[in-house]
Amino acid sequence: MDWHFGATAFATAITIIDPIGMIPITAATTAHFDRGKRNRIVDQAVLVAAIVMLAMGLVGPYLLDYLGITLPAFGIAGGILLFLIAIDMLFARPTGARATSEEERVAREGENPAVFPLAIPMIAGPGTIATVLLLVNLARGNPARDALVLVAYAAALAIAWLCMRGAARYLHRLGTTGIHVVSRVLGIILAALAVQFVINGILQTPLIKH
Known about the structure:
- The protein is globular.
- The protein is 83% helix and 0% strand.
- The protein is mainly alpha-helical.
- The chain contains ten helices and no strands.
- Helix 3 (35-67) packs across helix 6 (114-123) and helix 3 runs antiparallel to helix 8 (143-165).
């Protein structure tokens, strides 16, 4: 069992999904619903996000191969995208890689925020999909590594589900400052992972190796 790869997969999954960061957006978009409806919305959001990520994990590698995108190229591009997200997390800014201001405005006007914006793009946004594809490609078809990626994202989604289910309660206890502190710590970890992905991509390119 490749525990180093498993640790990388889990750290990447937990930082990009950012369960703590999901607390305020969940509380805001479900505030006018009763508790039962809020719970159903959270359940639906996590389920839809899981289906999207699983689908991309299964189909994504074939799509990249069809487009002729190499693993080093995707690693560099994914690392850059993750680094931009990490910068937004460090400065506690809303990131356009998850949801734009226009998307958030539309979401506030909608009746059911489960699919949009909670599932997509807040949980399974471009950044999350990029990391899923990146890790699946790094697994190189190894069944054990593929299983580690699956377990890592399942665990991250389970934690996100717990945070979203108790969003109102956690928001009251942690406060905005507490959530920002946790998000910034996760941002530092994500920034380091992003830089490592870029370095690995550069070192794996034929021009560098030869």
